[in-house]
Amino acid sequence: MGEKNRQYLCYTLIREAKSTVDFEIKADALAVQIGYAASLTKEIVTVHEDLLYLLEMVYHLNGSVRGKLAIHDEDLRRLDDMYDFYMAKIKDVKEKAGLFVLPQGSTAACVIHGCRNHALQTVRALHKVSLEKDVPEILFNYANLLGNLFFAMAMYVNKELKVEEIPYVSKSYKIKG
Q1: pLDDT band at 114 (very low <50, low <70, confident <90, very high)
Q2: CB 150 within 8 A of CB 119
Q3: Judging by beta carbons within 10 Å of its beta carbon (0-12, 13-18, 19+), is residue 94 exposed, middle or buried?
Q4: DSSP label of 8
Q5: What was the pLDDT predicted at 96?
Q6: Which of 57, 37, 60 lies closest to 47 in space, CA to CA?
Q7: What percent of the chain has pLDDT over 90?
Q8: What are the extents of the domains in the chain?
Q9: How many other β-carbons are positioned within 10 Å of the β-carbon of residue 6?
């Protein structure tokens, strides 16, 4: 392809038939959403700094499928520590609201709930890649934990901004907390 024609290609691997490219696009969408969330949380410093860290880590997760593994045990431990931090901060809210809450509240929390959803899509795309090639288990652990972290982080943001959570009670399933 000539240099001039490269402008008509948004991603060099866009026409690749393997699922890896779909995963990479999903992970990129997650990173974009995290960047958006970070722009809305500057006044909640811990969340803002954590989101900026996660933004970079999602690109490492992305590259770890096609390229060199860039997610390691210490990265998973740090993510686990973040999750524990936010879960401890929202313990009272979870006790009051229950296991599930509606993805609502402040704009920042709603965008972080969007991060949670993008993380789920990323995990699903990673699963599809794993049907075609070996994927290190640490990438699944990291991506799944990201989704759980974003749920806790969204609830923390609402708590910090004094926004009440709205419990969700399923009519379809019995949920045990």
Answers
A1: very high
A2: yes
A3: middle
A4: G
A5: 82
A6: 37
A7: 79
A8: 17-160
A9: 9
Right CATH number for 17-160 from 1.10.418.10, 3.90.79.10, 1.20.58.480, 1.20.1200.10?
A: 1.20.1200.10
The model's confidence at residue 58, banded by pLDDT at 50, 70 and 90, is very high
What six digits make up the tokens of 113? 């709930």
Residue whose entry in the numeric block shows the structure tokens 């995290």: 34
Averaged pLDDT, 59-72: 97
Mean pLDDT of 43-58: 98
Reply yes or no on whether the pLDDT at 148 is more than 80: yes
Question: Phi and psi for 144 in degrees, rounded to 5?
Answer: -65, -45
Q: How far apart are CA 177 and CA 166, in angstroms?
A: 16
